[in-house]
Recover the amino acids of this structure.
């Protein structure tokens, strides 16, 4: 078996355990009230960290570059109530434009 | 959760919006599928192995990391560990999504394979459980199909897709989509504070931790703070909040 295949099997199995632990172990039980209110709040932290880390993260470094300009334009588009697709197009176009002029 | 006539009209509208969000995020993922296919080819994988990663691992960042390490001549162990470390966050996604992913054991087992950033992001953007489930499923299935098709496309056709993505600014499509999904929550002060704290924790940890950990840590940090805060208020008020 090639290394790539060994990694594939191990990584697929391990990843699946991580993905399925919540739905399979918690099952159809209701979460305790306190945990439930926490779970209502956590998505905000999740979405914010996903957005910001993929904007300023550059391997192990934090880099402020054209991507941040794109994200700011996304924010402006959202503030102007632009539809989802437009937000993404505006952000990408702004980032591309900054790169062209640099 | 009673469904009246006006509810069901609303329901169709919400589902339409979720499908639109899922479609956009799926399109945003496509370029990265191409890059993954291309880098798998560069790293010396065979086509069935590259597709195997996209079907069975199905976690973008972990696939990239593992294939990159293998391509650089790293050991199988380091490639697998790096990939798994990146995916610890899906454990947290699973806890968040579990209440919406009810059903028979085999249904939950199947739905769990879709536990990725994008499916979770579309899912949690909805309010009611049935809409969370719907958003998660359309987002997850859309990305699954496109991710696998583009893996093949990248493997067979593209070799310099990475440059193209940067030139077109498509590397910011993902972050913009996450921001768009976060946006409606920011009108609420508690959600805004949570988002700000989560973002700050994540950015602060980027230089010091392997990729994937900052996102997990931001949820754990905010979660710990939330537990302390809710335990200091009385049970009555926490109960009325969670009834929303």
């Amino acid at each position: 078996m090639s290394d790539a295949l060994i990694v594939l099997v191990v990584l697929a199995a391990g990843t699946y355990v991580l993905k399925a632990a919540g739905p399979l172990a918690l099952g159809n039980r209701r979460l305790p009230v306190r945990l439930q209110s926490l779970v209502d709040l956590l998505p905000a932290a999740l979405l914010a960290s996903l957005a910001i880390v993929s904007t300023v993260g550059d391997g192990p470094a934090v880099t402020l570059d054209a991507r941040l300009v794109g994200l700011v334009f996304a924010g402006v588009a959202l503030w102007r109530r632009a539809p989802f697709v437009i937000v993404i197009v505006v952000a990408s176009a702004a980032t591309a434009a900054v790169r062209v002029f640099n | 959760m009673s469904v009246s006539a006006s509810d069901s009209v609303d329901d169709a509208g919400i589902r339409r919006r979720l499908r639109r969000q899922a479609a956009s995020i799926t399109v945003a993922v496509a370029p990265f599928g191409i890059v993954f296919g291309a880098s798998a080819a560069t790293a010396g994988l065979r086509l069935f192995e590259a597709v195997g990663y996209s079907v069975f691992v199905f976690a973008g960042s972990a696939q990239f990391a593992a294939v990159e390490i293998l391509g650089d001549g790293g050991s199988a162990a380091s490639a697998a560990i790096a990939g798994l470390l990146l995916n610890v966050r899906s454990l947290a996604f699973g806890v968040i999504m579990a209440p919406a992913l009810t059903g028979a054991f085999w249904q939950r087992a199947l739905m769990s394979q879709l536990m990725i950033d994008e499916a979770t992001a579309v899912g949690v953007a909805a309010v009611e459980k049935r809409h969370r489930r719907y958003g998660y499923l359309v987002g997850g299935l859309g990305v699954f199909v496109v991710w696998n098709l583009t893996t093949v496309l990248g493997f067979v056709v593209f070799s310099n897709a990475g440059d193209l993505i940067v030139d077109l600014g498509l590397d910011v499509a993902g972050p913009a989509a996450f921001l768009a999904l976060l946006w409606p929550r920011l009108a609420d002060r508690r959600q805004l504070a949570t988002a700000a704290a989560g973002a700050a924790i994540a950015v602060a940890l980027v230089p010091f931790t392997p990729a994937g950990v900052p996102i997990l840590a931001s949820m754990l940090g905010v979660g710990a703070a939330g537990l302390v805060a809710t335990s200091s208020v009385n049970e009555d008020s926490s109960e009325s909040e969670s009834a929303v």
Chain A has two domains: 1-30, 32-101. DSSP finds four helices and two strands in chain A.
